[in-house]
Every structure is written in structure tokens, then in C-alpha cells.
Amino acid sequence: MTVKAVYPGTFDPITNGHLDIITRGLRLFDEILVAILGNPEKEPLFPVGERIDILKAAVGGLPNVRVESFDGLLIDYARRRGAQVIVRGLRALSDFEYEFQMALMNQRLAPDIHTVFMMPSEAYVYVSSRLVKEVVRLGGDVTGLVPPEAVARLKARYAGTK
Ligand code: PNS
User: Which of 37, 115, 128, 129 to mutate to test the pocket of ligand 1 (most atoms within 8 A of CB)?
Assistant: First the structure.
């Protein structure tokens, strides 16, 4: 049986923590579909087209990884794509409540689709898209915490705003 997993998120932008989850996921699943939420309530810094470009540059060398955007319910998207698994990264206890609620809601809506939580390398436990944006906005360097394409786009986005 081929196991296809959806790895959903806002990815505004992708971090090396996300990338680490994708790499680990490839050891468990035959295919990973990275699914970028198109219109989240969070008002992302990067439009969805740019988030896709950054993600594609980051996962370009990885086999069996596809990048797409989606809108609407995640489980509807997962069903349309024939995915049996939703992958989410868990960094710390603070992630747990939100993730637990989402996983149980998705389980209620789609009992046949299973959420699998994966831990990133400890090197990335403190890394989040939100903190990375704040650091760059205030003039700090995030090299090594996000893929090179994201570093360049973040710098361009915040150039001249300090
Ligand atoms: O990276 P994020 O912002 O934590 O990702 C959140 C995401 C995209 C996984 C979540 O908001 C989502 O699945 N949205 C799609 C709408 C949906 O299905 N809502 C019900 C989830 S229980």
C-alpha cells in the first residue's frame, strides 16, 4: 500500500524546522504533499504564490515531495488528493493544545484520515516563522534557521523598514 501524507501549514515562510519534518516524513511515507493554506486568518507576510516559490526552492532536491496551495477544509483537500495521513510538527508543550484540538476535530470530520505528529531536530525546537520574521524585521540574521530562498525574500521584504 502506498501511503500519501499531507503536510499542511501557513509556511509564512517555511523554516528549517518544517524542512526537517518533511525530510523525516519521507522515511515514513511514500509521498508528502506540502499544502499551503491560501487564505488564512493570519494575514501572511508573503502572498501564497511567493510562499509556494520559497517552498519549491527549499524542497527542490527531495524526491516524492509536491507543493500545492489549498483553501477550505483540510480534510476535504486531503480526500481529494487521496491522502491517508496528515503530518504536523510538534515543538513544545505550547503547541500541544492547538494541535490536539485540530487533530480531534479532523478525526471527527474524517475518521479515516489519521494525524501523525513528528518532532523536529532539537536544533529547531525554538524556531518559528513568527520569530524569524520579527528577527529579520529588526535587523537580525536568520541564516541557518530558514532556507536560503527565504532569507533572501525576508531581507528584500523588510529592506529599509528598520
Ligand atoms: O501553520 P499553521 O498556521 O499552524 O497551519 C494551520 C492549518 C493550515 C493546518 C489549519 O489552519 C488548517 O488546517 N486550516 C484549514 C481549514 C480547516 O480545515 N479548519 C479546521 C481544522 S480543525
Answer: 37
